[in-house]
Design goal:
Schiff_base-form_aldolases_AS, about 300 residues, 13 helices, TIM Barrel, 4-hydroxy-tetrahydrodipicolinate synthase activity, alpha/beta
Length: about 300
């Protein structure tokens, strides 16, 4: 289940004053991704703007995604929160809705000790039965899951992997060395620039934001790496750079959402306020990038 390309889907919003969730566009995006070969759908990650949604919106959106996917591929629901009780509540709701797994980011804003982080995941793992993927993105949360904490948590049967979006090779290598010690653990790379590196060192899959737009290319990268066609893999890895370069010019996921809409994959709307729509100047750059990929 923890193999291949898993797409952390953007959350589509309508163009109304409250930017309500656009479920029709959600379905169009999901169909596009599955038809292009992704191995899993991950709602409510960083690209899904989970911090911008209310608790009820997160529950409703995850229920809709799980129902619409209808077992075509596994669904991994993001259920992390700043406090343990809310993370447990969201994880239980995802389990009841039929999620295949939950992905849980570390708490954010408050700097935590290793013991705090361990207890956070320990209590959640004891409260639910479905698999849990730890989510490490210290640049955003200021909290890093240390290799020592991962090693300790690995003895809990439903802790089944870690997604690392640090982009730090030291972290990646340390996590991969621990993964090799535990049969139940999987490493999922969350930094799209490091997919090839991570696969060649033992990663089982990638949670790749770029696959919202470039599903076919990222799935082909996965296939090339599995076939050990490293020359083709490097070409496909390098070809993610034009998108990644433009994505970095505005807050996540404003550029990605604009690109998905401009490519007529689905009308996913803008990022939620306070993130502003992309500027006209940036919009021109996005169109140029889409032309590179023959998407417009």
């Amino acid at each position: 289940m923890f193999n291949g390309i898993i797409t952390p889907i953007v959350t589509p919003f309508n163009q109304d004053t409250k930017q309500t969730i656009n479920y029709q566009a959600t379905d169009q995006l999901i169909d596009h991704l599955i038809n292009n070969g992704v191995s899993g759908i991950f709602p409510l990650g960083s690209n899904g703007e989970f911090t911008m949604l209310s608790v009820q919106e997160r529950i409703d959106f995850s229920k809709h995604v799980i129902k619409y996917v209808n077992h075509r591929v596994p669904v991994y629901v993001g259920t992390g929160a700043c406090n343990t009780n809310e993370a447990i509540f969201l994880s239980k709701e995802a389990e009841k809705a039929g999620a295949d797994a939950v992905s849980i980011i570390t708490p954010y804003f408050v700097k935590l000790t290793d013991n705090d982080i361990y207890n956070y995941y320990y209590e959640i793992a004891k409260a639910v039965n479905i698999p849990i993927i730890l989510y490490n993105i210290p640049a955003n949360t200021q909290n890093n899951i240390s290799p020592k904490v991962l090693d300790k948590l690995a003895f809990l049967p439903n802790i089944q992997g870690i997604k690392d979006s640090s982009g730090n090779l030291d972290y990646i290598n340390a996590y991969l060395s621990i993964i090799k010690k535990h049969d139940n653990l999987h490493f999922l790379i969350g930094s799209d620039s490091k997919i090839s590196y991570a696969y060649q060192h033992g990663a089982s899959g990638a949670i790749a934001g770029t696959s919202n737009l470039l599903a076919k290319q990222v799935v082909a990268l996965n296939s090339s790496l599995r076939a050990n066609d490293l020359e083709m893999a490097q070409k496909l890895q390098d070809d993610l750079n034009p998108l990644r370069k433009v994505m970095h010019q505005a807050p996540v996921p404003s550029v990605l959402k604009s690109a998905v809409t401009m490519a007529h994959i689905a009308d996913v709307g803008n990022a939620r306020r306070p993130i502003c729509p992309v500027t006209q100047e940036l919009s021109i750059k996005i169109k140029k990038m889409l032309t590179h990929y023959n998407l417009i």
